[in-house]
Amino acid sequence: RLYQIPFEMPSCEEPSESRTLHLVGDFSAPAEFFVTLGVFSFLYTMAALVLYLRFHSLYGENKKLPMADFCITVCFAFFWLVAAAAWGKGLTDVKAATRPTSLIAAMAVCRDEVVCGAGPTPAMGLANISVVR
């Protein structure tokens, strides 16, 4: 929800005043899907672990239980792939929306005779690692 993040920009008319601008974009859906799927995967893994360790005989006797476990695991693997791809695209969009050169291009004060410097690019290493996982 980048639209909730404000940043200050100097005013062209009155240099002592500043205007508050907001970033553009809402990339929360892919992130929420990724995190929700991770939580459900963890909960299913804990439930399956209890089933494997505590009710091992039930798991061995019932022929439908291993097949259901396999189908649920395949579904989680597929949705994990989809969620990782969605979060990867969402992260790319966040990077594009928060690139310093993009922000400077949107500032009216930097279009005139004023020279604006972009500064360093934000570190996105941990966000990149979250997609790889």
UniProtKB/TrEMBL annotation:
<comment type="similarity">
    <text>Belongs to the synaptophysin/synaptobrevin family.</text>
</comment>
<dbReference type="GO" id="GO:0030672">
    <property type="term" value="C:synaptic vesicle membrane"/>
</dbReference>
<keyword id="KW-0472">Membrane</keyword>
<dbReference type="Pfam" id="PF01284">
    <property type="entry name" value="MARVEL"/>
</dbReference>
<keyword id="KW-0325">Glycoprotein</keyword>
<dbReference type="InterPro" id="IPR001285">
    <property type="entry name" value="Synaptophysin/porin"/>
</dbReference>
<feature type="transmembrane region" description="Helical">
    <location>
        <begin position="33"/>
        <end position="55"/>
    </location>
</feature>
<keyword id="KW-0812">Transmembrane</keyword>
<feature type="transmembrane region" description="Helical">
    <location>
        <begin position="67"/>
        <end position="87"/>
    </location>
</feature>
<dbReference type="InterPro" id="IPR008253">
    <property type="entry name" value="Marvel"/>
</dbReference>
<protein>
    <submittedName>
        <fullName>SYPL2 protein</fullName>
    </submittedName>
</protein>
<keyword id="KW-1133">Transmembrane helix</keyword>
<feature type="domain" description="MARVEL">
    <location>
        <begin position="1"/>
        <end position="133"/>
    </location>
</feature>
